[in-house]
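go over both lines:
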Amino acid sequence: MDVKVFIVKATLFILISTSLVLSESVHSPTDLLARFKSFITDYNRNYTTKEEHEFRFQTFKKNFRRIASTNANGATYGVNKFADWTDEEFKELLGNRQVPTQEIVNSELHHSLSTAKFPSSLDWREHKRNIVGPVRNQGRCGCCWAFSTVETIASAWALAGNSFTELSVQQLLSCDNMDGGCRGGSFYLACNWLTKNRVPLETESANPYLGKRDKCVKHATNTGIILKKFTTSNFIYQESSSMIAALNQNGPLSIAVDATSWRDYVGGIIQHHCDGKVLNHAVQVVGYKLDAPVPYWIVRNSWGEDFGDHGYIYIKMGKNVCGIAESVGWVNF
């Protein structure tokens, strides 16, 4: 969906539904309770005790106040599926570990920028081959790093001329001893583990996602994708040109971001409230739109299709918003 169309639709939706752009001063306690009841219905919540119901209602009201103070030009923030989550619960969802990255200087990639001409927009979801898989949902496990890693490997594998195959997040979650399972990890560490140990990365069907770290299962067959080459880089000083080149030349990218403010995201382009102080979440950039009134990156998240624009989020290009250019990775076959 074109982001401009989505912004219009999201704005209309927010103005006529329980996901209104919020202004605390005009909502009475009765109105807040009515909104909370609508939230329970919309997101199929089932609180087992009166105490839990009251606790979640108080959490909902606290989050409601934060949302009201966050809305500004650009993105729209409102009630979504995280509206009854505590700060601690949301932090557990963010599972990226920051690791040092090397800045690429005078590499073939950077050298090619002087002569290469790239399109004003790119969306790998629209490629004639199947390059980008469906949005997945990590649940409450902080293993975004594993999703970002396997999705980027799967895209590169398909770009190399192979059939697109969903790969196993669970294998990394349970077997990768360089990362921390649901307590966090990174693209760099995961790829390092795969390459150093020459571990065949299995398919999702062979080792399906459980939403928790489990016993590492080593299958008798030695089938799977062997990763031999990966790259990590810091593009903070050349964000737009370098990431555009990397996307065009290597396919979708794994990135680390500060997703603290994404908690209440409903739609639009994030331009503010996202400074990138702590890179606490890993996602995948699948495209960009340079010729839009506000140029933006197209980002695939792993919080399910009921988040943002069917699982996607849009970030302003060129200002390192959310720290998007500080830890960028890709693989090649």
User: Anything to note?
Assistant: The longest strand covers residues 281-289. Confidence is low (pLDDT under 50) at residues 10-26, 103-108. The CA atoms of residues 139 and 211 lie 6 Å apart.
